[in-house]
Amino acid sequence: MIATSGKLWPQQKGIHLAMSQSKPTLRITTLLKLTSKIFIFCKCCFNFGNQMTQDAFTEFKLRQKEMWTSYERTATFTTVPASDLVEFSGIKSGDLVLDVGTGTGVAAITAARAGAKVTALDLTPELLELARKNASIASTNEITWIEGDAERLPFEDASFDVVISQFGHMFAPRPNVVISEMRRVLKPHGRIAFSTWPAEHFTGQMFNFVGRNSPPAPLGSSPPSEWGTPSVITERLGHKFGQPFFARKMMQVPALSLSHFRSYMENAIGPMRKVIESLADYPDKLKELRQEFDALVEPYYYGNQVHQEYILTRATAI
Hints:
Blueprint: H1 10-21, H2 24-67, H3 75-89, E1 96-100, H4 106-113, E2 117-122, H5 125-137, E3 144-147, E4 160-166, H6 175-184, E5 186-196, H7 202-212, H8 230-237, E6 245-254, H9 258-268, H10 270-278, H11 283-297, E7 301-302, E8 305-316
Parallel strand pairs: 1-2, 1-4, 2-3, 4-5
Antiparallel strand pairs: 5-8, 6-8, 7-8
């Protein structure tokens, strides 16, 4: 009972009077009704909040789908890392392989050329169209290309021997969800293998730079740079996989100057492109941002190449 200055509010007096004059059974019934109403109210609040969260993630993924349409030029530089990933994952002829976040299809096509039966999934239909063209040129037309969400894989449980991702699954906003999905579609003792960018190296720092200059991601999401820390990866794989094995490789991107490299990034890398577009009407801020970006790249630029280290991770499902 709530009192103010030793007195009861009129509404409280009514409840108190009804409770005091009723039989015990009636008092219990009244309490149950009140409890039920409170429960319904709380449930409605939870559902409303959950719906708002889902809407935020839906909007976020729609932005991702659009921003990666310019990724085609990057395939030139990710072709060699794709071969590293396929070899590292131990893919062999006849394996059923899923490539998550396939992009222009370089890893999927490399796996198919090794004799695997490949399904490749990406959120952006424009990239899948490019992947199909690449597959046609490489005479690997048997690959199945699917538009879909890494956090809601449209496959039955235990469908694949190997699940790979080259710089793809790390953009899914909820690591626990995407890893659970990748594990779900793996067969018992199947393998997961993926490439990500070390948080302390250029690309990991670049994504943090982009994040600081972009609209905030939905509450509950994680930045892609976190996938570049082995201890974090190990924790995320958790009880779903055995102890992961790591390796490091280097990707080189030729560039005649820092300005040439920045121009490439501004046009080919979706998140960077969006940051530049957002500052189109603010030339002073744009100039300052470009100077900051050049300073970030400079330690990794030598021999007319930008040296981008990446991490390979492999683990077996348990």
